[in-house]
Design goal:
single chain; 2 strands; about 55 residues; mainly beta
Length: about 55
């Protein structure tokens, strides 16, 4: 990732140094399986992610 900035006068800077970001994200869903009957109008599952992952 490299970026530029623009000041209030509209002057754009050169590109920044390149930055590499690696996130190891894990996700879980609960329950792992569910059967929601034909007549059901709603169901609930929970999804969780590791810290820093959205």
């Amino acid at each position: 990732l490299a970026d530029t900035a623009v000041d209030t006068s509209g002057v754009e800077s050169g590109y920044s140094s390149e930055v590499v970001v690696s996130l190891l994200c894990t996700f879980s869903i609960s329950p792992a399986s569910v059967i929601i009957g034909q007549g059901a109008s709603t169901g609930t599952v929970a999804v969780a992610a590791s810290t820093g992952c959205n």
